[in-house]
Amino acid sequence: MEKIRHQFTSKDIAALIIPLIADSFLSILIGMADTIMVSRCGEAAVSGVSLVDTVSNLLITVFNAFATGGAVVVSQYLGHKEEDNARASARNLIYISVIISVIMTAIILPIRGHMISLLFGSITDEVRMNTDAYFVPILISYPFLAVYSALTALSRSERRSFRTMMVSVMMNAINIGGNALLIYHEGLGPRGAGIASLASRIAGCAVMFTLMMNRKESLNIRGLLKGPFSPYLIKKILRIGIPSGLEGAAFHVGKIMVQALISGLGTSAMAINAVAGNFNAYSNIPGNGINLAMITIVGQCRGQDNIRDVKYYTKLLTGLVFIATILINIPLLLFAPQVISFYGLEPSSIDAAIPICSLCLVMCTTIWPFAFTLPNMLKAVGDVKFILFASFTSMWIFRVGGAYFMVKILGMGVEAIWYAMYLDWLFRGSLYLWRVARGKWQEKRVI
Known about the structure:
By secondary structure, the protein is mainly α. 82% of the residues lie in helices and 0% in strands. Its main location: membrane.
């Protein structure tokens, strides 16, 4: 019996996934380093950084949504052997990223104080001061981050994930070194952490831009200033990017509403939630890396109308997410108290954080892959409207509605926020599993 040949070899997959997992870790390390290193300045500083990260993640999600839209279009053109259209799509993705990020920064920068007051009204003056100090340099960094996100998405589409990992190494070195200098030596606290993040994002954007200008790149962006600005290609990118952006925006607006609920529980609750959020991020490092690979692999298979391999790689990559998450969560679960102690929380806050963080690791191992890996397969084939419906419904009924019910009606504390989130994961994961199994996605086309 002849052995079935698949579009990607095991070596191809390993070469793509391993750097992406490392890159995912390094990307998270920037925010994690800000939180841990600024913890020397007290719980108010940790809370201030956490509040900004909550808002920032909403905007970053929008940038990543358009980058994903571009990556899906480019991957399918590459799979279909249309390299000219792939390069033109790459240039138009850069145009979109620059325009949207500059507009966002210009609008938010002058009203940042009012935005923080509107979203997190019941916070102390000390937390508010730390929030503003960190927010300004982070806002200035958005255009650089948006272009960097687009360029790394394009690199993943052409299977060059190793270099995105190396650029992340450089960015983290700049960020951590900058934190050490500006927080510890200069005493700038959260402002220093924000400036270090800004410097790392400028450097990452500059290096990726230089690399993608190389003539030897299959997706080189030479002639960027000459155009053409293609409404046809932009429409294709936006067809994926807008629903993905709305889905991500709804997700993070819900998180911001929940964060406002947490802020009413006090500074200690905000700090505990920030630590649990970092545990959630640690746990999903390998899954996020594999999820990014899903876009490239499934997108190129769909570009060749290779439905058999779309199904095969969906099962394979989802299985890898489960295995990788188990492997990283076992040591995290065993050493959770020691890790939590690094954050400089009060003893009572540490005691409250341990069970919350431990349960988070269990839920990430069992239900997170269904809720966050399967939708990347659906994005890669263009089935984005269903994702928008599922995530929007689940977020507002379970994560937001459930959290407010448990806190306001049942009188529960910060742990209720996480219980509501697990209900959200369970519901949306069930919907995605049903959609993938049903096969309706086979009717969707991007190019």
